[in-house]
């Protein structure tokens, strides 16, 4: 029996049992087939496989070793991904904590700037932005014309725009937008 014919005969006889054997280790049929194919390629690389005493035993050992190597590699990859995931989680937590501190500081600066406004401007602005009152409701509460309320809110915003740098004022407008002025 020629070497190619022998290998073809062994392949036809042992391929399915070897795939089943590998599948018990790795739990994935495609991976099991690849590992069995690698075992047969190892025999081809050896070249003189007719000299192997027990080709069947050799193939099973090859497949077993391939499976163990695959599982070890998968464990290392899993540990690496888990470690990277932990690092990313810590970075996100740090970023969130840092972001919260920065936002708190900016809000404090904004509140200080608002408290520094003259009362005639501060009151309508606070009612508008913090209480979410419409300009007509503010006018009723303060016993003022609606146009006066609009003017005072506009002037309050102008003063804040001058007091705060551009980014802080934009942040103020984002954090406390007026959705419905009337």
Give a verbal description of the structure.
This protein is an all-alpha fold and 182 residues long. The protein is 82% helix and 0% strand. The longest helix is centred in the middle third of the chain and has 61 residues. The protein is rod-shaped. The mean pLDDT is 85.
Overall shape: it is: rod-shaped
Counting helices, strands and paired strands, the structural category is mainly alpha
Give the number of DSSP strands. 0
Beta-strand proportion: under 5%
Question: What Rg do the Cα atoms give?
Answer: 38 Å
Supply the number of helical segments. Answer: 7
Please, what is the average pLDDT?
A: 85
Order of helices and strands: HHHHHHH
Query: How is the biggest beta sheet arranged?
Result: none
User: Residue ranges: pLDDT <50 for 5 or more in a row?
Assistant: none
- Alpha-carbon distance between the termini? 97 Å
Helix amount: over 70%
Provide keyphrases for this structure.
mainly alpha, 182 residues, 7 helices, 0% strand
Topology of helices and strands:
Layout: H1 3-26, H2 29-46, H3 55-115, H4 119-129, H5 135-142, H6 146-163, H7 166-175
Helix pairs in contact: 1-2, 1-3, 2-3, 4-6, 5-6
Quick structural overview:
The protein has helices at residues 3-26, 29-46, 55-115, 119-129, 135-142, 146-163, 166-175.
């Amino acid at each position: 029996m020629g070497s190619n014919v022998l290998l073809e005969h062994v392949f036809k006889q042992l391929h399915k049992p070897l795939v089943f054997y590998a599948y018990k280790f790795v739990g994935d049929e495609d991976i099991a087939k690849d590992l069995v194919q690698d075992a047969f390629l190892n025999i081809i690389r050896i070249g003189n496989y007719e000299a192997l005493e027990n080709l069947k035993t050799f193939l099973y050992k090859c497949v077993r070793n391939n499976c163990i190597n695959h599982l070890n590699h998968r464990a290392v990859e899993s540990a690496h991904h888990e470690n990277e995931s932990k690092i990313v989680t810590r970075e996100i937590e740090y970023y969130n904590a840092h972001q919260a501190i920065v936002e708190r500081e900016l809000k404090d600066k904004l509140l200080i700037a608002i408290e520094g406004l003259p009362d005639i401007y501060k009151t309508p602005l606070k009612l508008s932005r913090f209480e979410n009152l419409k300009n007509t409701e503010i006018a009723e509460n303060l016993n003022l014309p609606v146009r006066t309320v609009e003017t005072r809110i506009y002037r309050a915003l102008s003063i804040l725009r001058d007091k705060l740098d551009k980014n802080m004022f934009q942040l103020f407008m984002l954090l406390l937008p007026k959705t419905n002025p009337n």
